[in-house]
Structure formats: C-alpha cells, structure tokens
From TrEMBL:
Molecular function terms from GO: histidinol-phosphate transaminase activity
The protein's Enzyme Commission number: 2.6.1.9
Signal peptide start-end: none
Protein name: Pyridoxal phosphate-dependent aminotransferase
C-alpha cells in the first residue's frame, strides 16, 4: 500500500518493490523550497534546549496573538496542526462529521479512533474545487462538525470567501462546528483568513501550520484560533509541555519575517504559472491552484499508472492521489521546487510524451 502522505519517497519505492534511483527529487512534499530563513546559533539556543519549555508555549503564544491582532485566550498551540486535529477527536467522539472531499486524509484518520460517523461530500469539479453548496446546505444541520480545507489540499484552490461565510451562517443555526484548515493560506495572504472572524463565533475553529511557509516540518508547530470557550474545551485534552521550547522560540521569530513571506509568495507565483502553462501545453487538466503546489491530470487518464512508474524510474516522485476521494489515482499533485528541479520534471514529461 502506498503512503497516505507526501514526503515519503523511500516508502513509495519500497511499497512498489522498485529500485530507488541514486538521485531523487521529491515533488510529493510541498514545503517552501527557498532556503531556511533563519541563521541558527546553537549557543543562543542552548538556554532554550536545556530548560523546560514554558507551559503555555511562550513566546510563540504571544507572537501568534500579536500577529493576528487577537487575544491569547483565543489561541491554542499544537505540536503541529496534526495535534489540533487529534484533539478535536475528543470533542467529536461518537458524533457525525461532514467532510468535503478530495481533502487532507488526516481529518478522518484522527477522528476514526473516536467512533465518528462520516458524511462525505465530493466537490462538483476538482479543477476549480467547486463546492456543492446546495448539498452542504441540506447536510450541515445534521452534522456536529464540518471540515473544509481552505485552500484545499491537494488541489491548491481557495474556495470563494462568500461561500465559506455562507457555510458558517448555515452552521450557526444548528451549532455545527466549522473547522477551517488554513495550513496553506500563507501562500495567498492574510487578507483571506477567517482568523480575525473566528473568535466572534461559538462554532468556528481556524487551524494553521508553521510547517509549509516557514520550512520547519521537523519542529512540529501549529495553532488554532477560535472563541475562548471553544479553545478551552480543546485545551483540556492537550498534554503538559506539548510545545517544545525550540519550536516556540523559532516560531516567534518566523512570524516577524514579512519580507521572507512576500518573497516566497512572489517567487512561487511565477513558478506556478510557468508550471501551469507547461502542463496545459502537454494537454493536462490543471487545478486552479493559488499555493505552492497544484494537481494535474493527464490527457490520457488511462495511462496514469504507467506515467507514475515512468517518473519514479527517473527519480521524480509525484504525490499519488489513490487515497484522495474523487481523484482515485487519476490525478497527481506536484510541489513547486527551484527552477533546476522543475526543469527535471519538465524533461521527464517530455520524455514520457516522446515514447
């Protein structure tokens, strides 16, 4: 069985019983390809490493509150966004949850051990990630929560703000919890976030990750924002000292890096449009991504499996879509890398088309 996440290239080759090439380019992960933005001084970090971390996750907690202009009581820190989703399982145990697909597999993975009943709804068009608004309006009243990835993973599409607001309004009538996963919103801009709105509701939780933009997946750091009462209901399930000191210290510094964020957004936007143009010239259907990754489908969909194997043989690891509902292996997600890596991908596709 293939891994359910990207960034596992060795496991992909093992699962498919293929010889791993000497050189790999892992397009299956979608972390910022720019260099790590901080110069780390181990001597300066030693006091943090050798002391117990702050029980509330300072200084990162205050940094998040200041960055978004909200109160600290409206923030819950997590050992990665993944921990936030795991904590949600405790409050949604034995309840019904509506999930919009295709989407990040971690939602259902973290809820399943809590005997959650899933109501799954597919978007009307994968390339544009068009939300099935009429269906959602009918189903939201019968769910305890709805999960929506904004912008979506794996397509990179950001649903229209007015549609998300409409869902929040519908959910308010039945106190249905709206969980908005904004892990990749950094790539679009804070003007699109619902973080500043969330504390005004009793039923909206926005989840963010420091992994993608800030190139720190190994440190595990994320956070959620919502009404203070909702935050308290989740925080009681978190373990003590669940935010390590190094992650907290570096996370606080990362939020100061305005120029780094802006440069990342600009450079990726150019690379994304170059990639889109190339894929469309190859006859591919491409998602309307606004992030540092996109999904595409071959013109000859029936050759998807052969194409995946062909690229793996060249050391080009794409993210398969076998575990994304509605995509079922006929789409591929590609993370945007530096230009030399993108050229290697283009050469691989051209070689495929010339067989």
């Amino acid at each position: 069985m293939l891994p359910n996440h990207g960034a596992n290239p060795q496991q992909v080759y093992e699962a498919m019983n293929l010889k791993e090439p000497d050189t790999l380019i892992d397009f299956s992960e979608n972390v910022n390809h720019l260099p790590f933005p901080l110069n780390l001084d181990i001597e300066k970090l030693l006091p943090v490493i050798t002391a117990y971390p702050h029980p509330d996750g300072e200084p990162f907690l205050s940094a998040v509150a200041a960055y978004h202009g909200i109160e600290k009581e409206e923030v819950l820190l997590g050992n990665g966004a993944a921990e936030i989703f795991a904590l949600l399982g405790n409050v949604l145990a034995n309840k019904r949850v509506l999930v919009v697909h295709p989407t990040f597999s971690e939602y259902e993975a973290t809820l399943a051990p809590h005997h959650v009943e899933f109501e799954r709804v597919l978007v009307e068009d994968i390339a544009t990630y068009q939300l099935p608004m009429k269906t959602l309006q009918k189903k939201i009243p019968y769910a305890s929560a709805i999960y929506l990835c904004t912008p979506n993973n794996p397509t990179g599409v950001l649903p229209p703000r007015e549609e998300i607001q409409q869902m929040i309004d519908w959910a308010q009538r039945t106190a249905t919890l709206v969980v908005l996963d904004e892990a990749f919103l950094d790539w679009i801009g804070e003007e699109h976030t619902f973080i500043t709105d969330a504390p005004n509701y009793d039923h909206v939780l926005v989840v963010r990750s420091m992994t993608k933009m800030y190139k720190m997946p190994g440190l595990r750091l994320g956070y959620a924002v919502g009404n203070a009462s909702l935050i308290r209901s989740l925080a009681r399930f978190a373990s003590h000292w669940h935010i390590n000191g190094v992650a907290s210290a570096l996370g606080a510094e990362m939020l100061k890096l305005h120029n780094y964020r802006e440069k990342s957004i600009r450079e990726v936007a150019v690379s994304r449009e170059t990639l889109r143009t190339f894929l469309e010239r190859q006859g591919c259907v491409v998602t309307n991504s606004q992030t540092n990754y996109m999904s595409f489908q071959l013109a000859e969909v029936e050759k998807s499996e052969a194409f995946y194997h062909f690229m793996l043989a060249r050391g080009l690891v794409l993210r398969h879509s076998k575990n994304f509902r509605g995509m079922d292996g006929s789409w591929f997600r590609i993370g945007i890398k530096a230009r030399p890596q993108m050229e290697a991908f283009e050469q691989g596709m051209i070689a495929w088309s010339q067989q």
